Amino acid sequence: MNALIQSRTGYARPDASLRPMRSIEYEAFARATQKLAATWKARKEAFPALIAALSENELLWSTLAADVASPGNGLPSALRAKLFYLYEFTTLHSRRVRDGAAGVEALIDINTAIMRGLRGQGGAS
């Protein structure tokens, strides 16, 4: 997780270049997670908002997947593999949510674990 996520979030915040990369990544996951939770609660009245939140979360995860799949990524290979698996799971589970066969709880749990890891509290590996 580095330049790709920063390129997507860095331009949105003028102070982004002054902030640590982990902070920017944490904020991206926090924003996506909050949108998933809020739109899930209102899904009956505003289903398109839920679809938009799922798409934003998938974009975040696809950006992460591209980063961990790149040869220059400095994370340990086992962690890179786990993160890529989570990307695949997120994509499949998001499809199930769209189809009405699942809820967003698993996606929120995964994002929360990533946020804990970014904060140095474990649970992301």
Question: What is this structure's SSE topology?
Answer:
Elements lengths: L2 H8 L10 H21 L5 H23 L7 H22 L6 H14 L7
Helix pairs in contact: 1-2, 2-3, 2-5, 3-4
User: What is the residue-averaged pLDDT?
Assistant: 88
Largest sheet: none
Radius of gyration: 14 Å
The portion of residues forming beta strands comes to under 5%
Order of helices and strands: HHHHH
Using the alpha-carbon principal axes, give the shape: globular
Total number of beta strands = 0
Task: Write up this protein.
The protein is built from 5 helices and no strands. By secondary structure, it is mostly helical. The protein has one domain. Helix 2 (21-41) runs antiparallel to helix 3 and helix 2 packs antiparallel against helix 5 (105-118). The chain is globular. The relative contact order is 0.14. The model has no long low-confidence stretch (mean pLDDT 88).
